[in-house]
Amino acid sequence: MGRDAALRADRAGLERLLAQRLIICVGTGGVGKTTTAAALALAAARRGRTTAVITVDPSRRLKDALGVDELASEPRPVPLGGDAAPLAAMALDTKRTFDHLITRVAPSPAVAERILANRLYQEVSSELGGSGEYMAMEKLHELLSLDRYELIVVDTPPSADVRALLTAPLRMTELLASQAVQFLKAPSSILGGSSESGLARATLAAVMKALERWTGMGLLGELSDFATGFEQLVDGFRARAAAIGTALRAPDTSFAIVTSPEPNTVAASIDFGAELRAGDYPVAGIIANRVYRFGPVAASAGTWAPASLREKLRSNYRDFAALSRRDETALRELTKRTGTPLLAVVPVMEEPPSSLPTLSALAEKLVG
C-alpha cells in the first residue's frame, strides 16, 4: 500500500529557505506552526547553522520536545549534542518584552521608570490591542541587533489577519502620535467641555470619582501621566518600526505559510498569500502539515488476511485514499491561488512531538 507520489514538494526551495537569515512562519492556530518552526530550527542547527527559534507556545509538551526545563523571554540552549551547531529557544513574554522595550526607547532612565511604575501601564501592557503581535516583532528586532545567530526562526502568534502582525510596529507608532494620546494628556477636559450640559458633566464627574474609589487610583492623573510618558517614546518606536519593516523585506528573509489541507485553513492561507504579496513580503512557499498520503489500494493488498477481514481492511484503506485525494486537491488549489510552491508535505502523525527524538523525527519528515 504505497504512498501517492503525485504531489511533490519543492526540495530545492526548502533548501533555499533553510539558507536564509530569517524565517517567519505564519498561519492560523492549530496547524502545527509552532512545532514546524521548532523543527526548521532543529534541522538548521543539525546542518551547522547557529540558530534561535522564538515561539509563542511555552507549553510543557514543547519544552519536553526541545529538551529544556523552561522557556522564557531570554534564549535557552537546546541540548542537541553531536556535531550540531548551537540552538537556542525562547518563548514570547509580552509583558516582559514590553518592559524591556520601554527601557530601551525611553529618552532617559527617569522617563522609563515613570512609565513602568504607572499603574495603568502595568494593567494594560500585556493586554493592549496588538501588543502580542508587536512584541513578536520587537523580540525579532532585538535578536537581529545582537547579530549572534546565523538563522532566526519566528513562530508568529495565531492571527486571522497576517497584516495585523506585520503592521503592528507602524500601528503602535501611529497610536502614540494620535489625537487620542493628546486628549489623554489633559483628561480633565472631558469634564469641562462647553458643548455638554451641566447635568452630563456632573454625571460624568460622579462616575469618574466612583471609578477612582473603586480602583484605588487617581484615574485622571494616571491617564495623563500614562499618555505623557508614552508621547516621549514616539521617536524611538518610529525608528524601530522602520528597522523592522526593512528586516521583513530583506533579501535574506523568507516567509513560510504553514497550513493543513482543511478547507477553512486553506482559505485563510490563500488570504495570507494575498496579503503578503500586497505588502511586498518575500514568500518562500507553503509547508503543509497533517496531510493524508495514501495511494490507490493494490489489487493484491491484504491477500494474507481472511476474506471478511481483508474486505474491511481494504474498505478502510480506500477511505484514507479518498482523504488523500481530497488533501492533494486542496493543496494544488492552494499553490495555484497563492502562486507559491509547496516546500514540504508532512504526513499525519499519531501524536505531536513530545521529546527531542520525536521532534527530530518531525524535522526529518519536514526536510527529508
Provide keyphrases for this structure.
368 residues, alpha/beta, Rossmann fold, eight-stranded mixed β-sheet, 16 helices, disordered N terminus
Mean pLDDT: 79
Total beta strand runs: 8
Classification by helices and strands = alpha/beta
Give the helix level as a range of percent: 40-55%
User: Mind summarizing the main beta sheet?
Assistant: 8 strands, mixed
Rg, rounded, reads: 25 Å
Number of domains: 1
CATH A-level architecture: 3-Layer(aba) Sandwich
Order of SSEs: HEHEHEEHHHHEHHHHHHEHEHEH
Envelope shape: elongated
CATH topology: Rossmann fold
Q: How large a portion of the residues is in β-strands, by DSSP E?
A: 5-15%
CATH class division: Alpha Beta
Describe this structure in words.
The chain has 368 residues and is α/β, with parallel strands linked by helices. The protein is built from 16 helices and 8 strands. Helix 14 links the parallel strand 6 (253-259) and strand 7 (283-291). The radius of gyration is 25 Å and the shape is elongated.
